[in-house]
Write a structure and sequence with these properties.
12 helices; 6-stranded mixed beta sheet; single chain; 31% helix; 6-stranded parallel beta sheet; 336 residues; Rossmann fold; Quinone Oxidoreductase, Chain A, domain 1; binds NADP nicotinamide-adenine-dinucleotide phosphate
Amino acid sequence: MSLPERNTALRYHEFGEPAKTLRLETQDLPPLKGGEALLEVVAAPINPADLGRIGGTYGELARPPATAGLEGLAKIVALGGESQGLQVGQHVFVPSHIGSWQSYAIAPCDELYPAPEKLSTRQAAMGWVNPPTAWKLLHDFTQLQAGDIVAQNAATSAVGKLVIQIARHLGIKTINLVRSLDSAKRLEELGADIVLLDDRNAAKAALEATGGTKAKLAFNSVGGSSAYGLCKLLANGSPLVTFGGMDRAPAPFPTRYLIFNDIQLRGLWVSAWYRKAPREEILALHNRVFSFMEKAKIEVEIAALYPLEDFQEALAHAQLPGKTGKVLFTREDSGA
Ligand SMILES: NC(=O)c1ccc[n+]([C@@H]2O[C@H](COP(=O)([O-])OP(=O)(O)OC[C@H]3O[C@@H](n4cnc5c(N)ncnc54)[C@H](OP(=O)(O)O)[C@@H]3O)[C@@H](O)[C@H]2O)c1
């Protein structure tokens, strides 16, 4: 089989608004060196973090010129030298720093992690970031038991819908705050117990719905006044975990919730965990999360698929308020 010689990639040469900054570029692929793998990217989602990375606002930046895309699924098409336990044809995650919004990529073999064979290729393409994040939110901050309540804002997000589905299978109830109640029926179908408009009355309405029982844990990916609302929902001493800032406004935390209720303000950044965790720990968490998703039939919803060439439409779709799921880049001939 002849190997591809050219690669098409969505690249940026300076930080800025993705629609203005990204360019579709074609480059020669360099020859494969020992210890490297040539990857054919099968599918890659557009996540909020991708936009922040291109915009220069994310916690970890690639120095431009760089290829965009923090996660994706790829097939190994060739190996340089020893296989290091990898096989041609195997599906792996694209390492974040290499960029997944491209047709081919060359990656060091020791940075490759196997993608879950039991999930579909599209689901696996979204497996690196959001499923481990949702899992860690529910497991790393407090010991939850069946019947406990967790609360979250931006419940329509991919992470939010994963939290709803995982919590439901663990017997944990969810209070879900959303920007529009148009999403309520879908969230309830996924297993949401309470869905409320994320406004000034949300905390009061939520406590009425639970009969006054407060949440043991809350997740904030919005910021601003929404985070304040979550404070009001938390039982004394419980963690409020911030892991995103979709409305870009600072989150005010009135001192009274820290003093009288001892709310624990915490943060999660899954990228930092990936950087620090030993390989065995990452493989073990992947195995646990992906097996759980497979058995419980948990999926990340998909709104649309686009080829790299249609990146302007894809970017616009990914940023539409009320979009129904993730937007992915795929190639028509990739089988994804
Ligand atoms: N810290 C970490 O390790 C980590 C890992 C994964 C994700 N995240 C963060 O988690 C968040 C969700 O990621 P995702 O991939 O699940 O997102 P997603 O599927 O693209 O969904 C985006 C969500 O943000 C909401 N939203 C957008 N703009 C908003 C605004 N101005 N005010 C309030 N809500 C707004 C959307 O609400 P509508 O449905 O109403 O449009 C939707 O619920 C992001 O902030 C992401 O960066 C962090």
